[in-house]
Write a structure and sequence with these properties.
binds flavin mononucleotide; Alpha-Beta Plaits; alpha+beta; 31% strand; 136 residues
Length: 136
């Protein structure tokens, strides 16, 4: 089954972007569902925005995107890229969570996430994934 990777950016609503409890809730459900659906990815929060990569089979990715578009915890979901991929980039995580580290902020260069190019979004998320694989 061919794999696809979708990357989007959205604006957090209310506490969703800042509250650790709200983010933990999202991650808990995401891990459970994504494991079930063989989806992997990473979620990055920065400046009241979410940047998320999701990888998996077309139907599973699309089903999640439908749920995400209806989720009131964020609005203004903008697709940055949607491509077939040869291999997973975030294969270790049902849904990894990264906070914007100084190195990532440098990568982002304080650029508005909604204006980020697909290539840069991938680079930022790849850096987030490398961070997740480092020992704590
Ligand atoms: C920024 C953000 C990222 C999310 N990421 C995922 C995800 O990767 N997987 C997932 O199943 N739900 C994710 N959700 C939650 C979904 O929108 C939805 O609430 C959930 O999938 C419903 O699951 P349930 O039917 O098991 O309650 C995310 C929500 C937000 C706001």
């Amino acid at each position: 089954m061919p794999l696809h990777r979708v990357i989007y950016v959205s604006d957090a609503v209310g506490a969703a972007g800042t509250s650790l409890l709200a983010i933990a809730e999202i991650l808990g459900v995401s891990e459970r569902n994504n494991r079930r659906d063989h989806l992997t990815g990473v979620l990055l929060g920065h400046n009241g925005r979410f940047l998320q990569a999701i990888e998996g089979a077309r139907t599973d990715v699309d089903r999640l995107m439908d749920r995400l578009r209806r989720d009131p915890r964020h609005v203004n979901l903008r697709l940055l890229s949607d491509q077939p991929i040869a291999a997973r980039m975030f294969g270790h995580w049902a849904m990894g969570h990264a906070t914007a580290a100084p190195a990532m902020l440098a990568l982002l260069n304080d650029e508005d996430l909604s204006a980020i190019s697909p290539a840069k979004a991938e680079a930022v998320l790849a850096a987030a994934a490398r961070r997740l694989s480092e020992p704590a």
